[in-house]
Amino acid sequence: NAKFQGSMGGKKLNAPVVGIAADPATGGYWEVASDGGVFAFDAPFYGSMGGKKLNAPVVGMAATPDGGGYWLVAADGEVFPFGNAKFQGSMGGKKLNAPVVGIAADPATGGYWEVASDGGVFAFDTPFYGSMGGKKLNAPVVGMAAT
């Protein structure tokens, strides 16, 4: 029952779109580009990192459980909160074995997990359930979702 609310497809962008998050409050969604630009479709705009200097490209986003905000995550693990999303920590500035490729919100705690391409998982104000970091993978991890 997902409805098309629009997209940045066919529009001139400064950087490619790399992620999407659903707004549970409106049924709309946000798209995020690698430069941190956020585009809202039937969802409130809470801000973006577009036009700001980033140490690494943005690679994903996650909505807060109530849709009142969202987090952006960069490949270096830095997290950027907007709206009612709270900063709970990040891997930004820490040595990583592989770049971060995704973020997922924990609906129970309001925290979030980051995942790296080697399967390493980092928990911030949320339970840690394990990871594939340090284990042989057939292919890199490319994203994550919460259950």
Major pleated sheet: 3 strands, antiparallel
- The radius of gyration is 15 Å
User: How do the helices and strands follow one another from N- to C-terminus?
Assistant: EEEEEEEEE
Taking the alpha carbons of the first and last residues, their distance comes to 19 Å
- Widest sheet: strand order? 1-2-3
Helical coverage, percent range:
under 10%
Low-confidence stretches: none
What does the overall shape look like? globular
Q: Report the count of strand segments.
A: 9
Q: What is the percentage of strand-forming residues? A: 25-35%
Overall SS class: mainly beta
* Average pLDDT figure: 97
Q: Helix tally?
A: 0
Please characterize this protein's 3D structure.
The protein has 147 residues and is mainly β. The chain has no helices and 9 strands. It is globular and about 40 Å long.
Can you give me a brief rundown of this structure?
This protein is mainly beta. It has strands at residues 17-22, 29-33, 38-41, 58-63, 69-74, 79-83, 100-105, 112-116, 121-124.
List the helices and strands and how they pair.
Blueprint: E1 17-22, E2 29-33, E3 38-41, E4 58-63, E5 69-74, E6 79-83, E7 100-105, E8 112-116, E9 121-124
Antiparallel strand pairs: 1-2, 2-3, 4-5, 5-6, 7-8, 8-9
Task: Summarize this structure as a short list of keywords or feature phrases.
three-stranded antiparallel sheet; single chain; mainly beta; 147 residues
